[in-house]
Protein 1
Amino acid sequence: MYVDDIIFGSNEEAMSQNFALVMQQEFEMSLLGELTYFLSQQVQQKKDGIFLSQTKYLKQILKKYGMEDSKPVFTPMVTGCSLSSNDESAAVHQPT
């Protein structure tokens, strides 16, 4: 089985509808309306931008491994740390 996903959009409703018609004539496809979920990403479209999150996916993973009641950690690493490929700090896991 081969599945392809395509997302398209426009500020011009007429242009978006015309493109959809052309695509439907050429390919077998269905229009599902406003994008809300794509490739494990939740999509929220708001006036000030488009926001992506993986909250639903992460909750599924936590449930799968019985960790739904785990204590949340806001920032799992040191804040203000600059990461670089030229890092000269000691390795976390030293070979034995």
Protein 2
Amino acid sequence: MAKTATRNPTAARRDDAPPLDPEAVSYAYRLHRARRAARERRHRERRWAGVRFWLVLVIAIAVTAFLALRTMGEIERVFGL
């Protein structure tokens, strides 16, 4: 039959545990805060990248349409169509 432990196992862990680094908590807090800020920054940058893409696309289409109409007008004027 197995013997029962005479000492409390949690007490043994507390005695053998290394001392808590006082800076570890503040370091972990800063680390997670920086990760959260980076995640929010990436989300914001991706959203603005989409807005910039559509804005540039609309401007490019508008300029292309303007140049096409202007060119057609010049062709009609020159050749009398």
